[in-house]
Amino acid sequence: MSKITHQHNIETRRIRFGINFDLPKYWNQNCPVKTHMFNAVAMLAPAFERLAITSVLPYQAQITDAVLKQQVQGFIGQESSHGSEFIRMQSVLKKQGYDPRQVEKKNVKRFVAFSSALSPEMHLSFTLAAEHVTAIISDLLLTDKQWLENAEPKVAALWRWHAIEEIDHKAVVFDLYQSLGLGYWTRMKGMLRMTFVLNVFLMANYCHLAKKDGLLYKPSFWFKTLWILWGKPGFVRKQFWAYLSYFSPKFHPWKKNNHNLIEAFKRAFARDPNLNVIDFLNK
Ligand SMILES: [Fe+2]
Ligand SMILES: [Fe+2]
Fold first, then answer.
1. Ligand 1 mean position, distance from CA 79 (Å)
2. Does residue 80 fall inside a structural domain?
3. Is residue 5 part of a domain?
4. Higher confidence at residue 157 or residue 268?
5. Would 21 be classed as within a structural domain?
6. What pLDDT score does 16 carry?
7. How many domains does the chain have?
8. Which ligand is nearest to the CA of 167?
């Protein structure tokens, strides 16, 4: 059993963000691109999180290290509470005229079929890769304010809370993977597979949202999308090197030390596990 690198407890927190059904359609800076890039993730997240949870379940009984055992349970708890909050967000999207539940149902079916075709090791490697990508996106969201600046506060808080917990548990699946003695090449194949699947599903969701808004065939919408993702704001561009760090044989999630982000949140949450957390998250 390899050494667990971060000994902290992974806590499950149930926070309700109370996002209203009258949420403005373009809740993020009145921008369809900046809104739908988040909505597309919200439409995928519960199915993806379920896929992650089912990948660690077969190994739970084999874990002998008490810290890792707790962390894996905490990981399951956190991912399942994320799933519930994103499903709430999906209800709001439904009210706005999109069809997220239909998309979600299809995603769950596809992912069940997909995961049953994978070996348990590859399924775990897939989750490990997804955890890395989620952790680097989370770091960007919390350190580069422009992505959620002036967004509707409750929705921004939901995303920031998710980002904090993703950083909180970012090494759990990695430590589990290491403890099982699984190797570098399986980890690489998992990342390539996950990158492909994630992009296809996110693009399908994004197109669904754009189509409902009559934007699907508007070149200006797609130029703006490219600019925001790859141009000067560069949501994807800014994550490129962090993404590549995964391919190093010496990679470990905590080599990027951003513990400070979760510590401040934990202190605020301990003081008041309700609305003040939302205020805190929006600062
Ligand atoms: Fe999550
Ligand atoms: Fe996660």
1. 5
2. yes
3. no
4. 157
5. no
6. 83
7. 1
8. 2
- Given a contact cutoff of 8 angstroms between Cβ atoms, the answer to whether 145 and 85 are in contact is no
Domain with 235, as residue range(s), is: 32-282
Q: How confident is the model at residue 2 (pLDDT cuts 50, 70, 90)?
A: very low
Residue 217 has what DSSP assignment? T
Termini Cα distance of the chain: 41
**Residues 6 or more apart whose Cβ sits within 8 Å of residue 34:** 28, 147, 151, 228
The answer to whether 114 and 209 are in contact (CB under 8 A) is: no
d(CA 17, CA 208): 25
State the Cα angle at 166 between 56 and 38, rounded to 5°.
115
Q: Span 253-267, mean pLDDT? A: 89
Tokens coding 256: 């990027």
> How far away, in angstroms, is 32 Cα from ligand 2 center?
26
Tell me which H or E stretch contains 41: helix 32-56
Domain assignment of residue 16, yes or no: no
Would the pLDDT of 244 be above 70? Answer: yes
Supply the pLDDT for residue 1.
42
Find the ligand nearest to 46 CA: 1
Per-residue tokens: 143? 């350190």
Question: Which pair of tokens denotes residue 84?
Answer: 């519930």
Chain position carrying tokens 């508007």: 218
pTM above 0.70, yes or no: yes
Cα 166 to ligand 1 centroid, rounded to whole Å: 6
In tens, the pLDDT along 137-189 reads 999 999 999 999 999 999 999 999 999 999 999 999 999 999 999 999 999 99
Alpha helical stretches, state H, 57-183: 66-95, 100-116, 120-143, 153-168, 172-179
The per-residue pLDDT for range 199-242, each reduced to its tens digit, is 999 999 999 999 999 999 999 999 999 999 999 999 999 999 99
The answer to whether 74 and 11 have CB atoms below 8 angstroms apart is: yes
